[in-house]
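Case study 2.
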Amino acid sequence: MEITLVSQSRDAMDDFERAVGTFDEILECHLTSGAADYILRIAAYPVRRAG
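Prediction:
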């Protein structure tokens, strides 16, 4: 998942990284340059189709 923060201040990035650490489903968090600020690798259950 790509994440773009509203603010790229050090405090905003620290707050985001601290929050990310509270979710077991978030396996990796990488600070990037370019369009997105972060890229996350997330574990999720498969979605079943209706019908």
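The chain has a mean pLDDT of 93.
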